[in-house]
Amino acid sequence: MASRRNHLLFLFIILSLEAITGDEHTHKYDDGEEVVLWMNTVGPYHNRQETYTYFSLPFCKGTKKDISHYHETLGEAIQGVELDFSGIDISFKVNVPQLEYCTLDLSQDNHDALVYAVKNHYWYQMYIDDLPIWGIVGEIGESKDEFYIWTHKKLDIAYNGYQIVDVSLTSESKAKLVPNSKLSFTYEVKWTESKTPFEKRYEKYLDPSFFQHRIHWFSIFNSFMMVIFLVGLVSMILMRTLRKDYARYSKDDDLDDMERDLGDEYGWKQVHGDVFRPASHRVMFTSLIGTGYHLSSVAAFVIMFTIMGDLYTTRGSILSTTIFVYAATAPVNGFMGGSLYARQGGRQWIKQMVLSAVLFPLLVCGTAFMINFIAIYYHASRAIPFATMVAVTSIVIFVILPLTLVGTVLGRNLYGAPNVPCRVNTVPRPIPEKKWFMEPLVIIILGGVLPFGSIFIEMYFIFTSFWAYKIYYVFGFMFLVFVILAIVTVCVTIVCTYFLLNAEDYRWQWTAFLSAASTAGYVYLYSLYYFFFKTKMYGLFQTTFYFGYMALFSIGLGIMCGTFGYAGASAFVKKIYSTVKID
Length: 583
Hints:
By secondary structure, the chain is α+β, with helices and mostly antiparallel strands. The chain has helices at 2-20, 74-78, 108-119, 208-211, 214-254, 257-262, 282-309, 317-328, 330-343, 349-378, 386-415, 440-447, 449-467, 475-502, 508-517, 519-534, 540-578, and strands at residues 37-44, 52-53, 84-85, 96-106, 122-128, 131-136, 138-140, 147-160, 163-176, 181-193.
């Protein structure tokens, strides 16, 4: 009994010590406790993704004992977070007057490296208690051939109780860069008490005047009105047109065979024996549909998690959450793609399952691998470590693939039986000639115009937050736009499908998917405009990074929109053919 009491006492002491000992993970500090200043990355201001480790430039460290940092999440590693200890001595609530922490011998190589950084407007990022701080390396003199570097860092840190709630940096003491001279780097720390709650300390980094601008609200309202208009228009046109079609087909049913043969039959009813014919390239088609459902569920979950948890306040959290949700929702891919493949009579279900599981990860890894080569050549911090590549590959092989298999088996067994209202003819019906604007290619090109119109304003805000220096936090807006995009895409695709079937062309499945997916083409074209007219990016690495990942984003968006379109068109086709009398 005494031994048990001693164990409980020991456990209580340990828990008590943990409660009063603070660090940047608990965000709680005792008076005089060490506060770590991490140096992250440095790079050209206009190329946000072209970053290098802070000490890749010839900066010197403080004398304090080095502390190592490891990537805490996959998101940190993939985003190129490279935290190095500054060596600067900072303690909680302890003011530090101007104090030298290191001296740099400015050799010719060091001089040239710093001059290059100043010429290209290099900035750097630091972290204190997970709060980001930005500073500029130096500036160009008035004569354009003189270059200066800031050698003094003044840190103003605000605290509320035992937590840090604000950090700001002031760069001072401009020193001219002269070869074979010495530079003395100093720092200063001033602590002030603040009434800012810890929960609101990140609000200073947000930009409500930009993201909650009147134009943003107007774009949401405009898109919402477009939804109401489209839904009303589609309902009115289709119901009115379909009512006439039903009346005509009912009249045709009352005619005898001779009169029907002599009559002028046309329209979507004539392809009832082919409209439910399996799509060409079934394995690829169903894999794309499964991937689209998968990406849609990931987007919805991540947006909701971010709204509830403010994931944007923590380094790499959104990306880490996305990877986790993508892996966890893999059964959705298998269920939807596998069941559709079974309903279309496919027999190579293992091939379909594997392709469905690895299709999008292969696109992501292929793009990242190509960009990684350039990042390694540039020695950029964006170069993904080999261990991270192995971790991502392991997730695909040992998590996503088995879960997709589970979903496929469930989908084939629970929802794999054909459920079409019309039987399929053995011999395909010839497709008659039609006007040029009824051709599938024209429908595909025009199908993405309205969906893109409903989201292009939001694309500007998303692009600016990712490619410029804004933190996107209005995920409520993003969720509304996501819903609006889905509704507009479904409505437009239903209209496109009706026109195609009315022209007696039964190749609606790929047409529905691609007409909705063409939204991504317009998004990529918009990204070209954004690159050349809204940014000042330059260089091989940044350009490749931009267009590579914009292509990946557009492909993912296209697969998702294509799935929305196919799902809506499929429900529409089944509905109209289930309500007509077929001999």
